[in-house]
Amino acid sequence: MAKDEIFLDEEDFIVEMTDEEGNKYYYIEEMIIPVDNEKYALLVAVDPDGEELHCEDPDCDCGDSDDVIIAKIVVNADGEEEYIEPTDEEFEKVQAAYEQMMDEEL
Q: Residue 11: helix, strand or coil by DSSP?
């Protein structure tokens, strides 16, 4: 997905991602998780104004109400960062690293 940044203030910015079909999605880069000399972003879905999105349907079976994804950060041929989907193995490593970080904060 292409990555464009829309700044909210000095600290936060919205990442606008566009899929292959032209649909736009908005995320805040909540944190960067380094794993095996690579960087992965924890992205939380927001509306274009920066408000977190939550599932409002009480009958929804989506599990977690927050739309959160993990994306690998790579540098493309133009020298710009972009997000790609991690492999299953990468996802599992990032998930374990995230859980370890959260355990250390407690």
A: coil
Q: With a cut of 50, say whether residue 7 has pLDDT above it.
A: no
84 CB-near residues (< 8 Å, 6+ apart)? 1, 71, 72, 74
How far is Cα 1 from Cα 106, in angstroms, rounded to an integer? Answer: 34
Which pLDDT belongs to residue 54? Answer: 55
CA distance 61 to 40: 27
* Residue 12 and residue 21 in contact, taking contact as beta carbons nearer than 8 Å: no
Q: How far apart are CA 104 and CA 106, in angstroms?
A: 5
State pTM to two decimals: 0.71
Mean pLDDT of 84-91: 95
